[in-house]
Structures
1.
Amino acid sequence: MSEALCLHSYWRSSAAYRVRIGLNLKGLRYEIIPVHLLRDGGEQRKPAFAEANPQKLVPVLQHGKRMLRQSLAILEYIDEVWPETPLLPATARDRQRVRALAQVVACDVHPLNNLRVIQYFEHEWNVPQPERDAWVRHWIEEGFEAFETMLQNHPATGDFCDGHAPSLADCCLVPQVYNARRFGVDLTPYPTIVRIEQACLALPAFDAARPERQPDAPG
Amino acid sequence: MSEALCLHSYWRSSAAYRVRIGLNLKGLRYEIIPVHLLRDGGEQRKPAFAEANPQKLVPVLQHGKRMLRQSLAILEYIDEVWPETPLLPATARDRQRVRALAQVVACDVHPLNNLRVIQYFEHEWNVPQPERDAWVRHWIEEGFEAFETMLQNHPATGDFCDGHAPSLADCCLVPQVYNARRFGVDLTPYPTIVRIEQACLALPAFDAARPERQPDAPG
């Protein structure tokens, strides 16, 4: 698997952030191809990007000639092709829990707060910014309340969401906490989430994936 | 794995519908525990359901004493524990594609149109029904446009989303087409989606999972 890896990414996209973490945890080299989601109506909506992803969304991981879409499916692929430093635990039962945690964020929080959704409110319904921001916070708080409970109630929770190494769940959680801070969510009710986020960000793989470390981040 | 399987389900929940299809494809016996999402403010929000799922969402698959949450994570679990009649193809590359198709629906269409989201618009923003319905159709059309392109552009597409047997992608697609019809989406632009939906519904596993066949469906 010596084919080149290129990640179509935007510094502030939390789905791209997940994949950057996964690639870094595996120690893989990859080129970042920045896709500016706001400039000029959004580069992801240009015909040039349609071959990369008919969904007009980042991230896309290009592996040789293959275009891989959907961040969780990309992370599972990375984990299967490069099995060292696994992103999923060893048993079906534990994998189920880690995937479910990842999906709390990736299915039930993030898609509701994605750029295209906020733009719909702004352009179709004229929802004012304070109400749009309250919407964003609402779904983060709903999701984090469940996520925190699922961590606190389970013996598998360790330094990270599952035991003592980062997993798919941590790849999703850390970017979502970044968004929560950005929108001013009070994180006091989620002590386990914040503790795990801090443990993750202390690792070079997570640190290098941070939005502000990306080549397309504003200077 | 002779422990009993119980599915906390609602007849019209498309996430529960996915899991019913998966269980049926595996030929597994399971008991349906109906959770009425509308009655009395929603049974999923009662304290009695919190142990089953802190997210207050269906489906939950109970396997012995384990509570398994998140439909895609449940389907992956079923596929790992009962590997016969696989829901995922044999290679990492093909699995990536099938998971990505499933996630187009499960991450980028369905969560935006979920009951709790529509209720937020109704109760917090007083969005009238015609605009709520237009919102639902908008995200289905966006998702289906990409899904159709991803099917048409790929040689792996067969009678089903991947070749000649149903997969995780079909488990997600068929319930989403059910929702599309319910909300009056014009399906003419998506001939491949409709062809695959019809092939699926001709199979007993899909037919028995239909909303109207469920014990909690209105008479």
Note: Chain B touches chain A at residues 53-57, 66, 68-70, 72-74, 76-77, 80-81, 92-93, 95-97, 99-100, 102-104, 106-108, 110-112, 117, 120, 125, 127, 131, 135, 138, 143, 145-146, 149-150, 153 (CB under 8 Å).
2.
Amino acid sequence: MGRLTGGDPSLLRRINSAVVLHALRATDCATLTEITRVTGLSRPTVEGVVEGLIEAGLVVEKAAEEGAARRQGRPARRFRFRAEAGHLLGLEIGAHRVAALLADLDGRVIGSQAKDVPETAGADERLERLRGTVAELLRRAGVARGSLRAVGVATPGIVEADGTVRLGTALPGWTGLRLGERLSRSFKCPVLVENDANAAAVAEHWKGAATESDDVVFVLAGLSPGAGSLIGGRLHRGYGGAAGEIGALHLLGREVTPETLLSTTDQPLHPLDEQAVAEVFAQARQGDQRARAAVDRFLQRLVHDVAALVLALDPELVVIGGWAAGLDGVLAPLRHELARYCLRPPEVALSRLGDAAVATGALRLALDHVEEQLFSVEGTTTPRR
Amino acid sequence: MGRLTGGDPSLLRRINSAVVLHALRATDCATLTEITRVTGLSRPTVEGVVEGLIEAGLVVEKAAEEGAARRQGRPARRFRFRAEAGHLLGLEIGAHRVAALLADLDGRVIGSQAKDVPETAGADERLERLRGTVAELLRRAGVARGSLRAVGVATPGIVEADGTVRLGTALPGWTGLRLGERLSRSFKCPVLVENDANAAAVAEHWKGAATESDDVVFVLAGLSPGAGSLIGGRLHRGYGGAAGEIGALHLLGREVTPETLLSTTDQPLHPLDEQAVAEVFAQARQGDQRARAAVDRFLQRLVHDVAALVLALDPELVVIGGWAAGLDGVLAPLRHELARYCLRPPEVALSRLGDAAVATGALRLALDHVEEQLFSVEGTTTPRR
């Protein structure tokens, strides 16, 4: 007869910790007896888990806080979660600006800061600007750097699991940058690097246009659109972090470049930036025929990109963000064409978080990481940095 | 001070059942003490769970089997999982044939059967053919119909959660067919209906070309390709079951239809079936210029479809199945073009299960369902039928 040898004890400990912590975070405070009853775990298991959480500084005994001498006899010990035990940062690195959000362990934002940065700035200058933004934010909020438990960073480009930017053509000197490692020098806590469209998708789901849906594609619409997807409420990064990088699809058809697409002359549009594109859209609104044709081509491409994402993923909801979301008439043609060609057309909505989407998503990822960490008081999980 | 009221007792019971059953299935047999030790659950919890599993016929006490009088005193009771307690079917409904696989509760195949069916057969005739195939298979294997615990069915088309075919142009009379309900009349157990490409993806992951990867896109390549995706080892159906139905993408570009694409004359190819297409490929191999051009167009479209899936999902591996997988020279241009245009090109492989992929996937889905059911001895989950 065989013997029972299976099972993963550290996994069970993590599950038990998660269960206890969920119970404690859902209430003001609770006794060991209450936790034992609600979780179905044995009392020794609950005691071990709570002890670990106290050691980690994440749980405190209420009686100890309120003075042990307050009551006679031996009242039942009560415990509560300490949201003030640490802080989180959500950072955004963009072409024109860097931004930072500061929050407690429940994800409540307690401060924010942003600075402009030249489009031509190299990696060193851009990171220095970000460091200055963070320093100012922490100083203003009166939060010590040592109190930070996790930092989320969102950046354009494909981000590898170790925080290296595999490909990032939007920012000078960005491809190959070991962004996670560079930023880790400024913090003692884990630094989590994420693609900007992925972060924005997480943010819209947390507190934006997608709070009601777990199956969302967020399109960061611009000259070369990127997308972030949530499937069943969880971020879908893809095997190599490249999911949603749909901008390359047109290369296959050998179709025209964005410069040609948006040109109203016989020459490619130069420089190809937001201001130049906004001008083309303004001309189109004033009735200029060539500008209208350029805008039509641009929207048709956006429709094709979004359709490819929708056919592959079949989301409930598509959220359009990025600067193109501010352009007139993006939603109507998208809805019309998706209804024609998608077997099950999704809802289409504009971003509700606008400029704040990317940094908010970075903050949520830091919060997710801390919550995972809480569920692993034995230190058995390796942070993604 | 707040009171601890949260938690979902039925969810906890399901989790506890799953933990106990996993432990039991991983071994020959075990005592209550062993199960308690490995799972970390309390003894009363383990006793309750095991009792529920015995009532469900899925666990048996070893001592009871071997004769209670065999030993003196009160030896510790030992329990084992009963794979022979029930059976599963995996069914495939195709344009030219229907097929069935029979297995035990561990998914071990103990019989198979297939029958041809005319391409023009209507829904009634096709389903009758399937019923006959199943009846013959059960009779040959000596398995009673009442022993079936779950039936998986794979079909072309978009399948809704209730087993209705929302859209299925490949088979006559298929769109709108309440396939799950129709087949449920023949079985007392749950009938799970799934899209054929989705089922094949599951099969290749279970025992085909994708056993080493959890992030897979399976392309059922044909005139209008469909795809099934696994993300983190789990089937991605999409919000409305339409994920991977990439065939519609070309409609957006107003590009030519498959009939025109594969034509070697000035007229659309008619009839458009596998035999006609195989002839075009044969002519191309013999050096016919128009046929070679037609094949190039066909492959280019396949590359575009696969690229859209890869850019959206970023899988580790793409498996090519379906009849086009049998055509010469599908892999080389796919690998070449994906490497050029995908930021992180995936591996590309041919299906290892061939014709058996779809029915094998249907069987695996039946097995998945039974395993889920095992984890829910209280009957709190609703089967998807």
Note: Chain B touches chain A through 72 residues (CB under 8 Å).
